[in-house]
Structure formats: C-alpha cells, structure tokens
Amino acid sequence: MLNEFIIFHISMSICYLIYGFLRKEKIKAINEFILVFMIPLLGIGHLILIKLIGTQIKDSTHILNSYKEYIREKNKIFYGEGVNLSQKINTISMEEALIYNTNREKRQLLLNILKGDYSQNVSILKSALKDEDSETSHYAASALMRIKGELDKNLQLKEIEYEKNKDSMEIMKEYIRIVKKYMESGLLDQFTYYKYRSIYLNLLKIILSKEKSNLYYEEKINYEIEVGNYQEARAYCEEYLKNFTLEEGAYLSYMKLYYNLGDYKGLYENINLLKNSFVRLSPKGLNILRFWMERTKHV
C-alpha cells in the first residue's frame, strides 16, 4: 500500500513538473515541483488553493477594468457625464482642422469661434496655443485670457451677492451654478480647483439641508467620491435613497460608491434592490444594470 502511494506521489509530482514546463514557466515549475514532492498531498492542495484565489482576484481586476472601459465608451453617450455628443464631434472636427488646415484657415476658424460662445471651446483654444503659427497661438491666448477674465468677474459678483443674501435659495443656486462652471472651465490650476471644489461641496451641503433635490444629491455624492470622502458619500447615498426611492440615480449613486470602494457584495445587493424595485430605468441605468448582471458569475 505504501509502495503504491509512493509511486502515485512521484508520478503526480513529475506530471505537475511537465505541466509547468509546457506552460513555459520552468523556474516556477521547478519550485512548485519541489513543494509538491517534499510535502505529499498538502503541497499540491496548497498550490491549487493559491491558484483558485489568484483566479478570483484576476477576475475581479478584469471586471473593474472592463467596467472602466464600458463607462468610458458607453456611459458618456447618455446623460451620465453631461456630454453633448454633437458638440463633442464638432470639437474633434475643429481640433483636426487646427492640425491640417493652412495658417490662414486656422486663424479664420479661431475668429469664428470668438464670435460665438467661445467658453465652450476651451480645449480647442488650448490646442491652438501650441500652434506653430504665432498669430494663431496669439488669438488663442487672447481668447483664453478673456474667458478667464469673464469667469473671474462673474464669480466675484456672485460671491458678493451671495454674502449679502445667504438666506436666498435663488441666489445660492445661481452662485453654485457659477462655481461649478468655474471649476469645469479647464482653466484653473490645481490649488484653485481644490479651493472651489471645497466651496462647492459646502454649498451643496447647505442646499440639501433646506431642499431635497436628486440633482444636488448626485453632485454631492460624485464630488465626495472624487475627494475620497467615502463615509460622507455613503451618508448622502442613504439620504438620497430614503428621499427618492423611485429614482434610479439613488441606486446608481450607491453603485458608483461601491464600485470605487471595490465592495462587490454591496454592489450586487444594491443591484438586486434596483431589479426588485418599481424604478423605471433610463438607457444609462439599463446599460449599467445589464453590464453588472452579466458578471454575476465572477462574484
């Protein structure tokens, strides 16, 4: 009986070594062979357990990467990130025009931009700053300075107005709108952005203490997640869901939080809540729900 076990153990160890060589992992195969050979049964059991755990971690990492790619390609098309698709296409076309057109055509393009709402074309103007044609880059620099000047002026006026009328919800909402526009202008240095992000979060807190709004809840949660203040984000997720049980945004905000925390258990519990609710899903919500439901086997 003992001899049969020894023969079986040696045969199994050699098979494991050959399997490792076939995978072109010779050094790793030799190390694992020594472990399997020196510790009968327990050695191979230990390796199998490690490989199973490693596979689960690999699958989880793949899910996160897939979701990031999915959100990048799909979610932005809908209202999730507030992207105007036709505007995005036009922006790309104009950026290409700055690369391939003649200097005269590029200057005319910038002049046309300056005649309209050029604050919507900051990325194009930034690209034009690097143009080899000095006149084109000069137009772009002038436009960016004008945009920044107007934003600063509008912000200062609203700040003064808000300081004098802090109890006015109408003025507060206008002020927070200007702060958000200022933050998202793409013209702020990191320190200034962080400063106004903090102001923005505080304004959202004040507004939500007086008026329950799904829009402001989502803004508050998104920026708390961006800051990394997950405890605060969780508190507002709970409040959002309590006040807007039939709004998909309440569930999607929770999903975003759990996704950033890497909490799959919480994520799928929330998905099941959404599936069993009476919420009417938008295209964005439906696509995100389908994405995660297809990956339940990994959890």
SSE topology sketch:
Elements: H1 2-22, H2 26-38, H3 42-73, H4 85-100, H5 103-115, H6 122-129, H7 134-164, H8 169-183, H9 190-210, H10 214-227, H11 230-243, H12 248-261, H13 264-275, H14 283-293
Helix pairs in contact: 1-2, 2-3, 4-6, 5-7, 6-7, 7-8, 8-9, 9-10, 10-11, 10-12, 11-12, 12-13
Order of helices and strands: HHHHHHHHHHHHHH
Multimerization state? single chain
Low-confidence segments: 54-61, 70-92
Question: Looking at the structure, what is the overall shape?
Answer: extended
Cα(first) to Cα(last) distance is 42 Å
User: How many strand segments?
Assistant: 0
- The value of Rg in angstroms is 28 Å
Structural class: mainly alpha
Could you characterize what this model shows?
With 299 residues, the chain is an all-alpha fold. The protein has a domain at 2-70. The protein has 14 helices and no strands. The protein has helices spanning 2-22, 26-38, 42-73, 85-100, 103-115, 122-129, 134-164, 169-183, 190-210, 214-227, 230-243, 248-261, 264-275, 283-293. Helix 8 (169-183) runs antiparallel to helix 9, helix 9 (190-210) runs antiparallel to helix 10 and helix 11 runs antiparallel to helix 12 (248-261). The two termini are 42 Å apart. Mean pLDDT is 75; it is low at 54-61 and 70-92.
